[in-house]
Structures are given as C-alpha cells and as structure tokens.
Amino acid sequence: MSITLNDQDALTLRLAAWGAVSLMSAAGAAGSAHKAATHGSLALTAATGPVGHVITKTPKGVKYGKTVAELADQVLPALTAAVNLLKRQDPAEAGNFRRTVIVAVEAASRSHQGEPGPTMTEMARKITEALDAA
Predict the structure, then answer these.
(1) Whole-number Cα distances in Å, 6 to 39, 89, 130
(2) pTM of the model
(3) Domain assignment present for 1
(4) Which bin fits 67, alpha (ψ -120 to 50), beta or left (φ > 0)?
(5) I need a surface site. Which of 8, 52, 97, 125 has the fewest CB within 10 A?
(6) Burial of 66 (0-12, 13-18, 19+ CB in 10 A)
(7) What is the three-class DSSP state of 57?
(8) pLDDT tops 80 at residue 31
(9) What is the 3-state secondary structure (H, E, C) of 72-130?
(10) What distance lies between CA 50 and its chain's CA centroid?
(11) CA angle centred on 15, ends 115 and 131, rounded to 5°
C-alpha cells in the first residue's frame, strides 16, 4: 500500500519528527544540545520507506517559538496528528514513522556520557505518549 500526502500532511510529518529532535535537544544538558540535535537528525535522515522520503527534508518556514513550552505546544499534537493521518492510509507506515521518531529520540538521549538526565527522560516520555495517543 502506498501513501498520498498533500503539502500540509508532509509538513505535519516533518514538523513532528524534526520537532521531536528539537525538544530532545532543548531538554539536554548544557553543552550536549548540539550533540543531541546531531544524533537525532542523523537518525531522521536514515529513515526509509515513504516516511523516509518525506521526513528526510527539514520543515521550511516553521516558527517553533521562543520557549520549550511553545515548541512542545506545536510538536506534541503534530506527533499525534502524523500517526493518525498515516494510520488512515497505511498502518505499516504509521508504525515506521513511530519507530523512526523513537530511534531519533533515543539517539538524541544517548548523545552525552552516562544515562540521560531526568529532563531528557521526561521529554522522551512525553514524545512517546504523543505518538501513542493516536
């Protein structure tokens, strides 16, 4: 089964995926934000399938806001919306998207030495919860 996404749908997927990496980067410890963003971004650009073709590009023209709360207000609902729209067209691609975002979140959280801190752990939980809300 293939998926058909209009421009708005593709933007939603990109905003959700890249925004999840941005949230993890923002939740990282001082000095590790760049590493978190790099590791998470590498995971997104390694995505495969129809989802991979869409999210390999960063979203253009998106204003994420000035605070982590403003970023989360956009990204967390976009994660749920992305999974919902993919489920309607191809449940396997919805699963692919979810796994891709989870891998990116895990890559971002492992970008520093030791275990992820409580802030990153909590952000990862919120992202997973948004993915599973669909």
Answers:
(1) 29, 12, 22
(2) 0.93
(3) no
(4) beta
(5) 8
(6) exposed
(7) coil
(8) no
(9) HHHHHHHHHHHHHHHHHHCHHHHHHHHHHHHHHHHHHHCCCCCCCCHHHHHHHHHHHHH
(10) 16
(11) 60
Sign of CA dihedral 89, 95, 98, 103: negative
The model's pLDDT over 2-28, given as tens digits with 9 standing for 90+, comes to 789 999 999 999 999 999 999 999 987
Q: Is the dihedral of CA 102, 66, 53, 10 positive or negative?
A: positive
**Which structural domain, as residue segments, surrounds residue 104?**
7-52+64-132
Residue 127 is encoded by which pair of tokens?
Answer: 């992202």
Can you tell me the distance from the alpha carbon of 67 to that of 22, in angstroms, rounded to the nearest whole number? Answer: 11
CA–CA separation, 58 vs 5, rounded Å? Answer: 16
Identify whether 57 is part of a domain: no
Whether 2 is in a domain gets the answer: no
**What's the structural domain count of the chain?**
1
